[in-house]
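Exercise: predict the fold of this chain.
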Amino acid sequence: MPDIILASKSKVRRNILKKNNINCLVKPSNVDEEPIKASLIKEGASPEIISKNLAELKANKVSQKMDQDLVLGADSVIDLNGELISKPENRKEALEILKKLNGKKHDLISSVCISKNGSMIWNYTDKAELTMKEMSDGDLKYYLSKISDEALYSYNVYQIEGEGKNLFEKIEGDENTIMGLPIKKIKDYLNK
């Protein structure tokens, strides 16, 4: 019997739960995020609000089909001075994102939501502040050449627990939050 249903196909999130002895069953929500993001941006929503809404939507969608089970939805976004930066669709976009972040400070926001019977019963959002080193285009291209497609498209251009750590001169915040799951707060909630 799982402790929680994870509404995400993210291996990283699954591994964080596993490392913390939280037994989970994976049921991806398959929510099409782009139209939702576009609509929220049009309404003037902040990256944090977008992240919270997507986490809740994913959890609620899966939760509607999982009678009485706790369902965990999660979403992470990059906030560069109020601009939402989404995951890249290809390597060219990944390079453009890295160029945009180059030498600058940004926030990585991770929101989580636990739903039951189709409704949110708990949520939490955490933020980490990262300052990227000033790097040449050549350095950025070299970094991208070392990253697998899977890592590139599932982590918002940098893998903080791997090669991505070398991109930053300063990281303030929880590594699990940066990887997409503020696990300490989730454990606190589940232990209640």
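Check your answer against the key: The chain has one domain: 4-191.
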